[in-house]
Amino acid sequence: MNIYADNAATTKMSRVAIDTMTEYMEKTFGNPSSLYTIGQKAKEALEEARADVAAVIGAQPRDILFTSGGSEADNQALRTAAKIGAKKGKKHIISTAFEHHAILHTLNKLEEEGFEVTLLPVHENGLVVPSELEDAIREDTCLVTVMFANNEIGTIQPIKEIGEICRKHGVLFHTDAVQAVGHVPIDVDELNIDMLSASGHKFHGPKGVGFFYVRKGIPVANLIEGGAQERGKRAGTENVPGIMALAAALKEAAAGMAETSEYVKARRDRLIAGLSEIPHCALNGDGEKRLPSNVNFCFEGIEGESLLLLLDQKGICASSGSACTSGSLDPSHVLLAIGRVHDVAHGSLRLSLGEDITDEEVDYIVDSVSEIVEYLRSFSPIWRDLKEGKAEHIL
Ligand SMILES: *Cc1c(COP(=O)(O)O)cnc(C)c1O
Is the shortest distance between the CB of 210 and ligand 1 below 6 Å? Predict the structure, then answer.
């Protein structure tokens, strides 16, 4: 069996996205700034795409800026708020300990530039507590940035409550919604979201293209200077094939969202139930308030990397929170943020399901993981210590 269960890392482009992309590479390939027909056709298409994307999140088309992806949108959102804050002498930002690195690393840069950052705890269930956010707001707070859904453990934050608190205190609210857009319903007005980041390749669109929603009236800070594209807020000839494909993928995802979500959620819960049978393991993140596709477990006495390599041999693509592959021996900052100790965090597994996952595939994953965990434990020194009572079980 071949099962791609790493959709939080990236998704396969949908048929409609590939076909749309090809059309705008082969046929309507003009530069939207050109005055002849093929350029103007590209421009019209681009504006249609903007309207389609806006409609999915309840925004106005003029409030959507296309970017090179989620990371760029995150950077632009933070730079926008920082610029506004600095002008008013407000240099305090509130975020969480388990944001994506596009947020955390930009916050580090802003700290070097004189901003102060408060990272809210996300607790054992991977959720921000709205009252703790309200308590953290100060006179000089210029931004709250809290991700919509976490990319590792899938927990969905109380975005509406957070938005209300920010509105009440007159603080800008940004959300990195890269994992949520196209997967869960979002209405920026209803949720009081001022700025939002999204990325095409997380909802079956292409890589290297995303969008930044910014509410009307907020003066956007440019990251890239040059031509007057994107209302002068993001220079560079528009990535028309990518943008068109992103919009096509998003439209399709939004149209089937309710049905897909219910279907995938049922398979997710089957997978969680199956994996929970393995001794000394635990689900990471709240069981209910999580993305329909996300399953994340820690298994005591194993290394996530070894598990991944053996799963690959069984045709299963998954991911682990431990970051040895990225040159660091530190386990995932997300798992540490929810209070997992180092040893336990190292034995993590993320399975992010696709919309076409079947019950048979879920059962095959459960059997494979159970078998591999038992095998890895059979020669793990940590597991031996646990069994011999030299160390205590945590899970
Ligand atoms: C993937 C991801 C990003 C980065 O998006 P890119 O388009 O790959 O730059 C940012 N935030 C979250 C939560 C993500 O999952």
Answer: yes
Q: What is the pLDDT of residue 330?
A: 79
pLDDT for res 322: 56
Which residue range(s) make up the domain with 108?
58-239
Question: Separation of 243 CA from ligand 1 center, angstroms?
Answer: 16
CA 291 to ligand 1 centroid distance, Å: 15
Continuous segment of H or E residues that includes residue 174: strand 172-176
> Do 220 and 94 share a structural domain?
yes
Residue 343: CA count within 13 A, CB half-sphere = 14
When the pLDDT of each residue in the chain is averaged and rounded to a whole number, the result is: 96
192 close to 57: Cβ distance less than 8 angstroms: no
- The average pLDDT across 191-209 equals 98
- Ligand 1 near 70 CB (within 6 A): yes
* 87 vs 82: CA distance, rounded Å: 9
Q: Tell me the CATH number at 134.
A: 3.40.640.10
Ligand 1 contact, 100 CB (< 6 A): yes
* Nearest-angstrom CA–CA distance, 245 and 201: 10
8 A C-beta contact, residue 364 and residue 306: no
* Å from CA of 6 to ligand 1 middle: 14
How do residues 83-120 score in pLDDT, each as one tens digit? 999 999 999 999 999 999 999 999 999 999 999 999 99
Nearest CA to ligand 1 atom 5: 70
CA of 198 to the centre of ligand 1 (A): 8
Show which residues are catalytic. Answer: 324
Mean pLDDT of 282-297: 98
Domain's final residue, options 196, 213, 239: 239
Q: Which of 135, 150, 145, 134 is nearest to 107 (CA)?
A: 145
pTM of the predicted protein model: 0.97
DSSP H or E stretch at residue 141: strand 141-145
Residue 148's Cβ-side half-sphere holds a number of Cα atoms within 13 Å equal to 26
Is residue 69 within 6 Å of ligand 1 at its C-beta? yes
HEC sequence for 344-378: HHHCEEEEECCCCCCHHHHHHHHHHHHHHHHHHHH
